[in-house]
Amino acid sequence: MVATLIGVTRDWDLAEECAQDAFVKALEHWGREGVPRNPGAWLTTTARNRAIDQLRRATAGATKEREATEGTLAAMEQAEPTSEVEEGAPIEDDRLRLMFTCCHPALSAEAQVALTLRTLAGLTTAEIARAFLVPEAAMAQRLVRAKRKIREAGIPYRVPPPDALAERTSAVLGVLYLLFNEGYSASSGALVRHDLCDEAIRLGRLLVQLTKGEREAVGLLSLLLLQHSRRVTRLDTAGALVLLEDQDRTAWDRFAIAEGLGLIQSMPPREPAGPYELQAAIAACHAEARTAEATDWPRIAGLYGELARVVPSPVVELNRAVAVAMADGPAVGLRLVEQLQETGALAGYHLLPATRADLLRRLDRRKEAAEAYREALALAPTAAEREFLTARLVQSLAG
Amino acid sequence: MRYIMLICNDEVAWEKTPDDVRAANTAEYETFMGEMGGRNVLQGGERLRPVADATTVRVRDGKVVTVDGPFAETKEQIGGYFVVDCKDLDEAIEIAGKIPGARDGSIEVRPIWEM
Description:
The complex is a heterodimer of chains A (399) and B (115). Chain A has 399 residues and is mainly alpha-helical. Helices cover 70% and strands 0% of the residues of chain A.
């Protein structure tokens, strides 16, 4: 509904305010008269009428923006009343437009995520502030600035034209992935926030539907579902991190896996594959392995190699090193990790020394392993990860 | 909406540019302006003399203080600008991407504060 109102009024604050008013009115009205036949349309019409009222009042006031406001009013009054328009299609188009506007590359990445959560996921400013560990006032300020930029810089409210669609879609995918990751490994504090993960998946589904199965959108949704399928096994009852190899695979969400595999397998292979498609293929390898030993590590190492060609990144290289270590032995993997370390690209990233430590441990080089665990421990951002590393450090010292 | 496009590039590098490359660059700007003229979006634009010819003026305690050169030392300087009137930021970004200076420098796109 907010999406529809923004579409008509072009005023984000007004749209939110009127939507809230409509809900309040609904509570009073429906309590007296009963719930109308089409509650969604009732709400949208009420909110829309409220917006027209507000805009009229604004026109009576300041002369400065009179022209613009009058233009909007005229457009609103000409537009078909939403209650008489069929539910469904136009509203979904509004949501897609809103998604592209929230994820416009002229907005900062933080602003993109915050706006998406506020306007599409309907989270409160306080909830978003908590998710990103910033004071509520700071988050409110960030949202105000972002909305102002949309208005003042003339960021359009529409689905981009075909020539820009691929690039813009990738921005939307990036925001959804960031949102999911924020829930999957919240920067600190609680390790998993399922609500953010659920929201990312919901929006991912919507994007797949609205873009009529754009490959990378399908790849991302598949990836999210496959990762999410392991949500209950990632932590033990005490809240400590459980490695993939130690997880109880019978507790993985079979429905999420079936859907994720179905999505990725529904697409005919294409060269070169997109980054989300490749990551989904990697996640699929894990999901398909009935036991940790049955994992097809050579294939995973190959997929990481492909991913590194499509999106060169030291984090991808680190993951490739882990896969190579599983496929060809820890000594081969360790060489790759050490090469990566020499580039200095991952300085300060705790998973670099943590990976080195694990490979040294498997090579039975305990003293060096202990040292690397200490290094990782000093950098690890979450309590669960620190606990895990401490346990491993103690083990390596005990031997 | 109206936007100003500030063309920022490295003056020092430009001074070392051979004549034929400069001529090609000028031709590219002509092509750009021809295209924008045809689209009727250009409202103005100028090339600026180098910062060596610039003077910075401030008023402090009621006195006019004048110094040589630009206020800030940065690697890139504003070498010119265009004012365009176009539909929205997407169109402005598309236009900015066609300014030849975008390839070796950068274009700052700012909405004009309409009074």
